[in-house]
């Protein structure tokens, strides 16, 4: 299959390596040419800055024609100059013009910010929160593609992205709340299932290690592996657990790391 990965960053690089090894025709994009030097020979690099005016014809249209697009553009921080939504709107225009076959959009379970309890894809999100609104508008920008599969990723961990490194020496809240994390390898495995399905259909799915693990247990184990420490303040009772049942059932999917704790030793 012809696949274009828009956003050849930390996660995009790992996705590209695996899909190319599986025999897919891979194109990867970055905003600057210098970021595409020394690519593996199986990959074709394409300069694409979605925050600049695009030529919807010519080379870009040829690259995106009849391709499945994996949108790995990170939403970045919420501020008045954030161009995340407009970038995805430009991507949608490019795909429309090129007649791409569909898109897998890597979004975030941060869209459930402000909610408590067990949350799934049917929950009504709190659009009054700026971060939630940004993510929702980003998802909406790609909804009208012939196929739009939105994967809402929980906190990402993986190679050179060890959770213990980010909390070392800190004091965290909600020790008894669920930790909502997913390893990059499970994201890649999920993408392989999607590309291997007989018929891709639009849908919104959470990706999160499915077994319940508390934040205190997870981060104490994470920091212990790095010989550092983390502490916790009293639990306020506000807890949120992201459920991934819809993706598991739709794709008969088996997470490699059902417990986020089991994934920690694969983050170095």
Automatic annotation (TrEMBL):
InterPro entries attached to this UniProt entry: Epimerase_deHydtase, NAD(P)-bd_dom_sf
Domain NAD-dependent epimerase/dehydratase residue range list: 4-123
Listed SUPFAM superfamilies: NAD(P)-binding Rossmann-fold domains (SSF51735)
Pfam families on file: Epimerase
Gene3D superfamilies given in the database record: NAD(P)-binding Rossmann-like Domain (3.40.50.720)
Superkingdom of this protein's organism: Bacteria
Listed name of the protein: NAD-dependent epimerase/dehydratase family protein
Lineage per the UniProt record: Bacteria, Pseudomonadati, Pseudomonadota, Gammaproteobacteria, Chromatiales
